[in-house]
Amino acid sequence: MTMLQLDAEALYAALREGVRRLLVPPGGEAAAPTALVGIWSGGAWLAERLQRDLGLPGAPGVISSMLHRDDFGARGLAARGDATSLPFEIAGRHIVLVDDVLYTGRTVRAVINELYDFGRPASVTLAVLVDRGGRELPIEAAFAAARVVLPAAHKLTLARDEAGRYSFSVRERA
User: Can you tell me the distance from the alpha carbon of 170 to that of 172, in angstroms, rounded to the nearest whole number?
Assistant: First the structure.
């Protein structure tokens, strides 16, 4: 069987250009401002680097799905430092939500619920590094740098090294 090889750095370059286009809010420049919010943890890494590479002021937001997951009872509260941090007003702002891998859509659903706990955004747009299909909910990314198909038994994970470079690993779920 051939192992899936994804060049995470090349996909990041495509994501950067896709997000650049998404940063112009509906209604043009005069509309409410747009902010990046990364989903903990891979999406947060991506949003942080996008914020810097796109020359955006301030810091991106980071959002956790922890408190709104539909499997919260089974997973519980983990002390991993994955708390939501939104250093700007959400109400009335256009949000570009960034994640590493879109699969079932359950994490995105949980994150949108969390986001609305902080206010009602003008819009929420999703950009992902990889869309691997397998949706359980009607959630679609406005931009995906790649679309791949993996067996349900496999997990695609983004890693970041000390220099900030990205790579992917594929392994069978336990």
Answer: 7
Q: Where are the domains of the chain?
A: 8-24+33-70+81-172
Q: What is the pLDDT of residues 141-158, one digit of tens each?
A: 999 999 999 999 999 999
Please state which architecture CATH assigns to domain 8-24+33-70+81-172. 3-Layer(aba) Sandwich (3.40)
Q: Identify whether the C-beta of residue 137 lies closer than 8 Å to the C-beta of residue 109.
A: yes
pTM value?
Answer: 0.90
- Nearest C-alpha neighbor of 114 from the set 162, 73, 163, 61: 61
Return the structure tokens found at 10. 């090349």
Closest CA to 9 of 165, 169, 146, 170: 165
Query: 117-120, long-range: CB within 8 Å, 24+ apart, which pairs?
Result: 118/84, 118/86, 118/90, 118/91, 119/89, 119/90, 119/91, 119/92, 120/90, 120/91, 120/92
